């Protein structure tokens, strides 16, 4: 199969993720969209790796997964504590950092 | 013997320090301390004079190096004194007349509770004036120059509870600053051009010209003009003359000592001392004569219109100093006569002022001559001494003023050419006006009917002769007014005394000396007769009549204050106002405009900071998209 199709898929996934980050208010969903964007990147890295015939992209994909796993731990912890303090997981409610 | 020079200055300086720092416990004796120290200074001066007379004419310059004031590489300012024939003449005049006026003030200021302070200031003045004439370089001269300005300021404003006196003091100080600026600029030019400002190396002697001889005429003209500006300020010459009339607000002994006999002649001293510079700068010299001629007529006209006896005398002082400046501007033809007139003027003008003070003393401080009249019966000594001073100043043959003024008029004609005729004509005209206004003063004060009336409190003045502490100085000064001129002129004594310092040149007179003398006497008689016909033959109105346009202008000092007000005060106001306007609109406009536009822009940018994470995300995505687009674009290009 033509590897370019994977790139298209990755672009589609990234766009879905980015759109979700921008339009959804629920912090969990936003978070999931961020993960989706990360994985779209991973997919494109693996696809490029395949296209160019070296393993660099695949190795970076592993690194990304490890970092994403760590980020999930921290991010979920933030969301949980946010929910505990405000009884809401809406990202728009947490808009105190403004003039 | 040289060491006496410093003591000459130290004596009055000590007096000033003791009297001004001593406090009230010296109130009882303060005036005598001041007088004795002034007299001590005179005695030192007399000893030095005798010593100088004992030497031959070429070796009469004594110098004393006291200490190095500012010893810096390439800049040497010394406190050093130089006593030669010129400064000796001044020393004797300053300390002699000064001591007499100290004595006079003992009586005149008797009822003033601040008499001790007054004597402190007088001593300070003496010290500063002596420093001025004894200094061996221009920088030290400048110290004395500023010192006499300070003393003059303090003494004009001595009765500072009167707003008019306080204002007059301020005016004198400010106008003098303009002149002082000229002197300081002259000193700066000297230093940058010659690297020194000591008289010896700078001015040289007749045999060997100093550094001045090796310099371009342009530089010397610049120095000369600045020195002339300084002289105009200190000596109340046009255009810086406006302060002298108001300076009469000071106590009368001050007017006699500072504003008639000594300080106001400092400008003449400066010009004569800097003779080497002026001789090499004919343009500056010509301007000096013009200033002198204009001022001698200006002062004389003002003197004719004033009803205030002191202000009439002040106009006369201005006019007589105009004669001296005119003579000093004639170069070697006139230097000696400028100084000779200065000395005789010191005697008779101080005498006249002391006489005026004596009249005021007896008339409850009334100064309006229209309210005097017939005082000769009440104050015989004042009348006789004042009368002798009067005869001296109008140039009555045989008295002091006759010899010195006649010589100046001769010298003005001897300048030669058209200039000589114009200057000589001005001087002759001035002599006629002098005779006119002095006769007017004399007649209004001492002759005619008594015109005084009770003042608003009902006190009628009881004219009386002043105490002997006041009449003795007047009598001594009257002796000077009568005999000094003859003493100086017989055998050309004064000429031979001063010639080694100033040089002398007979010029080429277009008319003989006898003709000049005859015309001087003739114009004097015309002036006296005119004034007698106008004031002596018919009753004098107590309230001044309206008078002609010229009279009214002359009463307002020929509009000098109006001129200064319109040109300088208004001009200055307009200048500052337009500068403020430019500052407000242009400078502030640029600064405030920049700040306002940056503020407005950031106010708009600030709205991006809204706290919504999603909006920040849009910015990030937008930025990333822009970066990608830019990268692609760059690659395509």
What does the model show?
The complex is a heterodimer of chains A (99) and B (637). Chain A has 99 residues and is an all-alpha fold. Chain A has one domain (3-88): Helix Hairpins (Orthogonal Bundle), CATH 1.10.287. Chain A contains three helices and no strands. Chain A has helices at residues 4-23, 27-52, 56-86. In chain A, helix 1 (4-23) packs antiparallel against helix 2 (27-52) and helix 2 runs antiparallel to helix 3. The longest helix of chain A has 31 residues, at 56-86. Chain A is elongated, with a radius of gyration of 16 Å. Chain B has a domain at 565-636. Chain B is mainly alpha-helical. Chain B has helices at residues 3-21, 30-53, 85-108, 115-134, 138-156, 163-194, 199-203, 217-234, 242-246, 252-261, 266-273, 275-279, 282-305, 309-329, 335-362, 380-394, 400-414, 417-446, 468-489, 493-502, 513-536, 549-555, 560-606, 613-636, and strands at 62-72, 75-83. Chain B has 24 helices and two strands. The A-B interface holds A 18, 21-23, 25, 91-92, 94-99 and B 606, 609-614, 617-618, 621.
Strand content of chain A: under 5%
Biggest sheet statistics of chain B: 2 strands, antiparallel
Helix and strand succession of chain B? HHEEHHHHHHHHHHHHHHHHHHHHHH
Number of domains of chain A: 1
Pfam family, one (chain A): Oxidored_q2
GO molecular function, one term (chain A): quinone binding
Subcellular location (chain A): Cell membrane; Membrane
Transmembrane segments (chain A): 6-23, 28-48, 60-83
Q: What would the keywords be for this entry?
A:
heterodimer; A: 99 residues; mainly alpha; Helix Hairpins; B: 637 residues; two-stranded antiparallel sheet; 24 helices; globular; transmembrane helix (chain A); quinone (chain A); NAD (chain A); NADH dehydrogenase (quinone) (non-electrogenic) activity (chain A)
């Amino acid at each position: 199969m033509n590897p370019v199709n994977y790139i298209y898929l990755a672009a589609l996934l990234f766009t879905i993720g980015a759109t979700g980050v921008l339009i959804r208010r629920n912090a969990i969903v936003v978070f999931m969209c961020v993960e989706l964007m990360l994985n779209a990147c991973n997919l494109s890295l693996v696809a490029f790796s395949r296209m160019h015939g070296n393993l660099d992209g695949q190795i970076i994909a592993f690194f990304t997964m490890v970092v994403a796993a760590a980020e999930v731990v921290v991010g979920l912890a933030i969301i949980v504590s946010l929910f505990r303090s405000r009884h809401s997981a809406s990202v728009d409610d947490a808009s105190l950092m403004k003039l | 013997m040289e060491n006496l020079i410093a003591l000459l200055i130290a004596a009055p300086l000590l007096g000033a320090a003791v009297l001004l720092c001593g406090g009230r416990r010296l109130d009882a004796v303060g005036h005598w301390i001041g007088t004795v120290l002034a007299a001590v200074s005179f005695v030192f001066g007399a000893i030095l004079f005798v010593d100088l007379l004992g030497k031959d004419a070429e070796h009469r310059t004594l110098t004393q190096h006291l200490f190095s004031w500012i010893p810096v590489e390439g800049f040497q300012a010394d406190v050093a004194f130089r006593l030669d024939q010129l400064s000796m003449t001044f020393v004797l005049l300053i300390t002699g007349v000064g001591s007499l006026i100290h004595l006079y003030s003992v009586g005149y200021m008797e009822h003033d509770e601040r008499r001790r302070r007054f004597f402190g200031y007088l001593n300070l003045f003496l010290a500063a004036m002596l420093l001025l004439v004894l200094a061996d370089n221009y920088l030290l001269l400048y110290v004395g120059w500023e010192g006499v300005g300070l003393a003059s300021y303090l003494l004009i404003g001595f009765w500072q509870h009167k707003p008019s006196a306080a204002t007059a003091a301020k005016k004198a100080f400010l106008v003098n600053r303009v002149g002082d600026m000229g002197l300081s600029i002259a000193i700066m030019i000297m230093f940058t051009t010659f690297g020194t400002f000591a008289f010896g190396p700078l001015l040289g002697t007749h045999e060997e010209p100093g550094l001045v001889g090796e310099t371009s005429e342009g530089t010397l003209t610049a120095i000369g003009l600045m020195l002339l500006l300084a002289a105009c300020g200190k000596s109340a010459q046009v255009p810086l003359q406006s302060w002298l009339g108001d300076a009469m607000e000071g106590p009368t002994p001050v007017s006699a000592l500072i504003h008639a006999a000594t300080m106001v002649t400092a400008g003449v001293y400066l010009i004569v001392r800097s003779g080497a510079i002026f001789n090499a700068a004919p343009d500056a010299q010509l301007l000096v004569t013009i200033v002198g001629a204009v001022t001698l007529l200006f002062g004389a006209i003002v003197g004719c219109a004033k009803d205030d006896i002191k202000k009439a005398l002040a106009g006369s002082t201005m006019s007589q100093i105009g004669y001296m400046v005119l003579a000093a501007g004639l170069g070697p033809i006139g230097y000696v006569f400028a100084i000779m007139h200065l000395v005789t003027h010191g005697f008779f003008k101080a005498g006249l002022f002391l006489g005026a003070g004596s009249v005021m003393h007896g008339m409850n401080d009334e100064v309006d001559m229209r309210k005097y009249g017939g005082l000769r019966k009440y104050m015989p000594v004042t009348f006789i001494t004042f009368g002798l001073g009067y005869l001296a100043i109008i140039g009555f043959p045989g008295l002091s003023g006759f010899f010195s003024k006649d010589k100046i008029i001769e010298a003005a004609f001897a300048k030669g050419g058209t200039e000589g005729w114009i200057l000589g004509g001005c001087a002759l005209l001035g002599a006629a006006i002098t005779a006119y206004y002095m006769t007017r003063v004399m007649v209004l004060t001492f002759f005619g009917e008594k015109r005084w009336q009770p003042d608003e409190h009902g006190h009628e003045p009881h004219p009386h002769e002043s105490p002997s502490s006041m009449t003795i100085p007047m009598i001594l000064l009257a002796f000077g007014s009568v005999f000094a001129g003859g003493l100086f002129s017989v055998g050309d004594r004064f000429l031979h005394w001063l010639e080694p310092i100033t040089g002398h040149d007979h010029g080429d007179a277009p008319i003989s000396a006898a003709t000049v003398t005859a015309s001087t006497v003739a114009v004097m008689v015309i002036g006296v007769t005119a004034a007698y016909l106008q004031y002596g033959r018919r009753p004098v109105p107590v309230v001044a009549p309206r008078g002609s346009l010229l009279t009214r202008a002359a009463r307002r000092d020929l509009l000098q204050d109006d001129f200064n007000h319109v040109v300088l005060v208004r001009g200055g106001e307009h200048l500052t106002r337009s500068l403020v306007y430019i500052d407000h609109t242009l400078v502030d406009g640029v600064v405030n405009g920049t700040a306002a536009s940056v503020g407005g822009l950031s106010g708009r940018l600030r709205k991006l900071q809204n706290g919504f994470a999603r909006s920040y995300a849009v910015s990030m995505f937008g930025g990333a998209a822009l970066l990608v687009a830019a990268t692609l674009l760059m690659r395509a290009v």
